Amino acid sequence: MQELDELTRQLYSCVCFNKGEKPELEKLKPLFFGSGRLINNSGTEPQEYTVAQFSENVMKKISENVIEAFQEKEVASKTEVFGKVAHRFSTYEARFDEASPAPFAVGVNCIQFIQVDGKWLITSMAWDDETK
């Protein structure tokens, strides 16, 4: 379970960055099996990305000044493991500034894992924000 906790911590760390910095998106790819799948299901239509497409999309939003900073942290989780497969419901809070008292979004990342040659990797992640 510690390996999955650490893998999840690394996942969050890759996408977080402060104003004037860039996220360490190049560190995402090694966390995933194959090309990975990331699915944002918080809008009206699901948006599906490979890790490379997700990274390109984030960097485009940064270059266009749509996003200047992003902080997301896990505030609760439930992980279930069966043999070499696992899934985690990871409740998150997202802020544009980590000093902000209230998050702009709270939701759940549903993360799927497999174990390959004794190492855990992420196969996919789908997320949804709470609605008011």
How would you sum up this structure, described in words?
The protein has one domain (2-129): Roll (Nuclear Transport Factor 2, Chain: A). It has a six-stranded mixed β-sheet with strand order 2-1-6-5-4-3. The N and C termini lie far apart (33 Å). It is globular, with a radius of gyration of 15 Å. The chain has helices spanning 2-15, 51-63, and strands spanning 32-40, 47-49, 71-82, 85-95, 105-116, 119-129. The chain contains two helices and six strands. The longest helix is centred in the N-terminal third of the chain and has 14 residues, at 2-15. The protein has 132 residues and is α+β, with helices and mostly antiparallel strands.
Please name the defining characteristics of this protein.
132 residues, alpha+beta, Nuclear Transport Factor 2, Chain: A, 6-stranded mixed β-sheet, 2 helices, globular, Nuclear transport factor 2 family protein
Given the C-alpha coordinates, what overall shape results? globular
CATH class: Alpha Beta
Total number of helices: 2
In helices, the fraction of residues equals: 10-25%
Name the poorly predicted regions: none
Q: In this structure, how is the largest beta sheet organized?
A: 6 strands, mixed
Number of domains: 1
- The SSE string, one letter per element, is HEEHEEEE
Q: What would you call the structural class?
A: alpha+beta
Taking Cα atoms only, what radius of gyration do you get, to the nearest Å? 15 Å
Mean pLDDT: 96
Strand content: 35-45%
The counted number of beta strands is 6
CATH names the topology as Nuclear Transport Factor 2, Chain: A
Terminal Cα separation, in Å?
A: 33 Å
CATH architecture annotation: Roll
Strand line-up across the major sheet? 2-1-6-5-4-3
